[in-house]
Amino acid sequence: MERKRIITHNYFKLVLISVLISVISCLLAFSLKHLTEFFEHKIFTAAGSMNKAIFILLPTIGITSIYFLRKYIFQNRKNKGITEIYKTLDQRKEHLPFFKIPSHYLNGFLTVIFGGSTGVEVSTVVATATVGNMGYKREFSAKMYKRELVCAGVTAGVAVLFASPLAGWLFAMEVIARKIDKSLIISCTASAIIAAAFVFFFDSTPLLHFRIGEWHLIAIPFLFY
């Protein structure tokens, strides 16, 4: 009876910290997504009104900015993408340091607004995974839930980035966790629910402004091609 009570208590704490991580990750992904879009549009419009040759130079500006940021602000510490997450999950003593949040945030932002890339997916995933890792390091939950908290952050980040909580949940489970168990389902589902509410209230503007009038069942087979 005592063991069951302890397990239930730990699950409750896991849900609470997953919710907190989800809120922070939602704000992080939301700001990166919309600030990047805003400045990319401004720079593209300004460059388009001038000499078109400037489009060749713009990516160089972004890459150069990132180089000096990494050299002087982040002390030459490298970013290696999603492999960093796998390393910290496979080796419990390894952690994603806090600098990964501003480093990946700025890398993604500067690369995209100057046309050096088309998306901030990896930056969002690693930054929000670091948020989850920070929650784990604060020991708000049982020490066995590192993977769960990292995945909670990733779930929220991807959910807000693509305005799809289901996409965030599936990505965290299939790509980051690479396994499925009860505690992972609890943390990722709690995070996805918060992300769904966030998207509904703050980021639900449709990409394509048209209304679906009706569905034709005869079209279903073509969806699988």
UniProtKB/TrEMBL annotation:
Task: Please name the PANTHER family in this protein's record.
Answer: CHLORIDE CHANNEL PROTEIN CLC-E
Keywords carried by this UniProt record? Chloride, Chloride channel, Ion channel, Ion transport, Membrane, Transmembrane, Transmembrane helix, Transport
Q: Does the keyword Glycoprotein apply?
A: no
Keyword Transmembrane helix assigned:
yes
Q: What is its main location?
A: membrane
- Pfam families tied to this protein: Voltage_CLC
Q: What is this protein called?
A: Chloride channel protein
Q: Where in the cell is it found?
A: Membrane
**Coiled coil start-end:** none
- Give TM regions: 12-32, 52-69, 149-172, 184-202
- Give the organism, scientific name: Niabella ginsengisoli
Membrane topology term: Multi-pass membrane protein
